[in-house]
Amino acid sequence: MYLSYLIAAAVAVAWYVNRGEGSGDAVLRRWGFRSPLWIWLPAAALIVTFIAQIGIDRTYAATGRHVGSGYVSYPIAIVADGTQSVVGDVVAGLLAVIQSALLAVLAAAMSVRRKRCDAPVVAAASVVTVILALWAPVATSADFYAYVGTAVAAGSPYHPAAQPFSGEHAVINVLWGLPVIASPYGPLWSAIAKFLLLPLHSLGAQLFSLRCLGAAAFAGCVIVLFVLRVPRAAIAAFALNPALIAQYVMDAHNDGLGLLLVLAALAAARVPIVAALLVTAAGCIKLPFLALGAVAFRSRPRCSERIGLMGFAIVIAAGWYAACVGANFLSVMGGASRVYAAADGAALAAHVAAAAVALVALAGALLLRRFCGGASWSFSALAVTPVPWYLGWGLPYALCSGAAVPFLISLPLAADLTSQTFAPTMLTLGLALIITLSAFCAIARKALPLATSLVACGKRLPSRP
């Protein structure tokens, strides 16, 4: 799954194509991207591919599990790891490639046309896709069952009692053990989950409410992107992104809420204390968002001010964690997270290297206000293992570095390469390799004249005695 970082170089081609300026814009116009069909057809096709994606997931999903002499049912079926066929892996990979290609076409058309009438088309298609995700009979992750378990379990979410659930909630113990796994999430998420889930008594209603929360967070992200005046191509690639909708709505991962808070901090950058509090809140959803929020202070001119705001956010978050989880909160939450960690040495080395890239990029953003768009794909390595729902972590940095469009276009293919349910196939990896080589050729073609010019300028400089 660490091969997903191959995408970092691959999307350079999409970056050049979707700039919407200079010769790239002229090429797109010659290709006829000014027609509204280049908006309508990709939008409709993305809906169709999402329906196909749900169908593939449903084919391989488990509706329940035999336990002893009984059978427990899942209100929402779960795609179990290792139950897929090669055919399923190939079809899932092809769908991911098609979705990335459709997003590239949509983003290119949005960057060229610049018509107000296109926004309602994209919005309507996004709403349809979100509704499909809300009512999907299947999910590719059982994490939202754990959200319910830690919220309704006796005791603290971080120290749940060894008391089995009864009735339909017994399936949570089947999926997440007894006692249920301790929560690896922040105190703000625990409070939100309890507030949302405790009044509901049906497991199905609780799971659906988590999906609704994910849909609301996703819609909030789109609104904040408008407030940030992000290019139309990037907003369209976000609003109709099947990978993000699948992870944050259908699978109801709470990363969507953390992402919303970090984006809101970017929007509130002119009011530093508000931005710092929003970063604190994001970190109290999930701890890595505290580091990801460093980009929210990029507009402050002085390094000392940026460091002070980041330190303020860290201190407030640490106090909140210590009060709710305990003074050893890092040990408690780290123990809960180790269930996901990879044991393979090569994978661990790749993970550490990618995490180092992400940390250096964040340090450069905070200390120097310097950004490198290619680092956006490394931020999922700040978790214990790169899985599809962590890919969105790089979006705030991608927005600040100007890499948002290629980053968003790459997500369906990157999600397939990091999937825990459908394994990447030689076909998918081959396509990724072809795209990567094409990207390197494009970069070399553009970099060679620049390097030649720099050498020529250097030769013309007067030499010192």
Protein architecture, described:
- Strand 1 (61-67) and strand 2 form a beta hairpin.
- The model is unreliable at 1-24 and 457-465 (pLDDT under 50).
- This protein has a 3-stranded mixed sheet. A two-stranded antiparallel sheet has the order 4-5.
- It has one domain.
- The chain is built from 21 helices and 5 strands.
- The protein is 64% helix and 5% strand.
- It has 465 residues and is mainly α.
Summarize the topology:
Elements (H helix, E strand, L loop, with lengths): L6 H4 L1 H6 L4 H9 L6 H24 E7 L2 E10 L6 H28 L4 H17 L3 E2 L3 H10 L2 E2 L2 E2 L9 H7 L10 H11 L5 H25 L4 H8 L2 H9 L4 H13 L4 H12 L4 H5 L10 H22 L4 H9 L7 H23 L27 H7 L2 H14 L8 H35 L5
Parallel strand pairs: 2-3
Antiparallel strand pairs: 1-2, 4-5
Helix pairs in contact: 4-5, 4-6, 5-11, 5-20, 6-12, 7-8, 7-9, 10-12, 10-13, 11-20, 13-14, 14-16, 19-20
Brief characterization of the structure:
Helices cover 64% and strands 5% of the residues. The chain has 465 residues and is mainly alpha-helical.
List keywords for this structure.
three-stranded mixed sheet, disordered N terminus, two-stranded antiparallel sheet, disordered C terminus, 465 residues, mainly alpha
Shape: globular
Task: Output the structural class.
Answer: mainly alpha
β-strand percent reads under 5%
Strand order of the largest sheet: 1-2-3
| Termini gap | 56 Å
Largest sheet: 3 strands, mixed
> In total, how many beta strands?
5
Order of helices and strands: HHHHEEHHEHEEHHHHHHHHHHHHHH
Number of helices: 21
Low-confidence stretches: 1-24, 457-465
Helix content: 55-70%
Task: Quote the average pLDDT.
Answer: 81
Question: Rg from C-alpha positions?
Answer: 23 Å
Can you tell me the number of structural domains?
A: 1
